[in-house]
């Protein structure tokens, strides 16, 4: 298997110097000195955008007062995989706790019309070999993934233990009984020996801090809380039949927006698409799963496929290695590998290799800008929709339906790039270019809090370790951990996420391995009859120092990028920068953890009996 390189404009027709100048100008136009502060925290009037659940009714229940071994905070893929590894480690006393009404995490909340995975499903959906499940197509629909989360939960006995529609309000370490006390908005008091924080990366809606947003009197909702009562239709049935007499605006043209926009365009009387920075939007062939292919897959195929994806997206193919993924995520590596193969794999210095890679990047971006010209009629829209930055400054997207939307009479593209976003909102609508646009409904496809302060993202009032120390203060300037999963002063607490560890292109693989490591430490601690485990200060200091020494400095690349949550809104070396990683790479990180576990001595941990 494998695929051919794409046809991009030839290198000698790409004026790299001119493109560099254009990229820099576009970045400067978009840089916002406010950084993360340009977004409004979900609270007060906006609290409903996070707390309320449009999908399932909240059923009254009695408060839970109990003791258990492990509380897993979150029931998305991070929490599900942590629990899966707990069961594998023989631990039976645990619960997933989530403020959603079911398993699924982002796939529970995000049911907007058109929601679909835009990564290769055969990589993204975890435990396919363990469950025997096979996605129905390359880019699975959101409903299928949500359903699959429940399949895993049922298969591995997580369902009956879970506590849903439960928002954690505080987590405090109680030295007297060496347990965490977890309190919730349902009056629960749960005393857990261990806590796994699997809150997710895209859990907290991010609201654009548009001046006057709270004065708008029309309907407004975030895509992660789609209001089908208002729009008509239902999850999986995007017939938005109540919008026929409505003027709708959508803020954003990111991964979410480009999936929802074709449906809004089809049904709204008039749709304004408010764009600040254009995305790269490639074609999206989405074939059904080939049964013949699926039948002959050999054990270990998913790990192999994920490793192939990781090399293509974040490292590079080995000579002769086929591209198993064959989509936008792997195009640059695929094209470059084809060039190098044709040249007999010349020996290149790292600088030469990176220069070649950058040139292919320019060619691929030219190809993607060419798509806009092919598919959009209006010359002004064509110019506004062309992305001017390096691939991977923003999340690469694919859709066959997005660009043609702008050829419809009822769709208007509102370019707000020069004003760094929507100028302001009024009682009746929004203002752009000095003109007020009256609307009935504003849909916020404005993304999620990914790199803002931890407190803002977790939304948990207090998380206090030893001596009442707040984790928010402890990590004010970024995380300090051992192996990215534990921190000194917060015994028996584990973290799943993008926190000072290895980085893997397949996020569910990364979270799963963190869960596996946490489950090992918990099982080992319990087996020793110990009460508490935490990294020693010395071991943590040593790990943090090594992490920083080995880290590959990406600031030059990031400095040149148009801002996004991929690049911390333009703040280089931000404390919670997303893609900080163990420098020697994912495989080296995995080996280090496996070796550490194999030795069995819990080196660097302080264990309290
Ligand atoms: P993004 O953060 O990617 O996009 C937010 C959009 O809102 C951007 O276009 C942004 O513009 C725009 N925006 C924010 N504030 C303003 C403002 N004040 N004025 C105008 N525009 C504004 O969020 P998404 O929800 O689209 O995607 C988030 C992530 O969710 C994805 O990157 C992906 O990881 C995940 N996702 C995954 C999917 C999957 O299939 N696996 C599908 C959908 C989402 P600007 O670019 O200028 O900041």
TrEMBL record:
Its cofactor is FAD. It comes from the Bacteria. InterPro entries: FAD-binding_Monooxygenases, FAD/NAD-bd_sf, Flavin_mOase-like. Keywords: FAD, Flavoprotein, Monooxygenase, NADP, Oxidoreductase. One of its GO terms (molecular function) is monooxygenase activity. The keyword Lipid metabolism does not apply. Its EC number is 1.14.13.-. Belongs to the FAD-binding monooxygenase family. This is Flavin-containing monooxygenase.
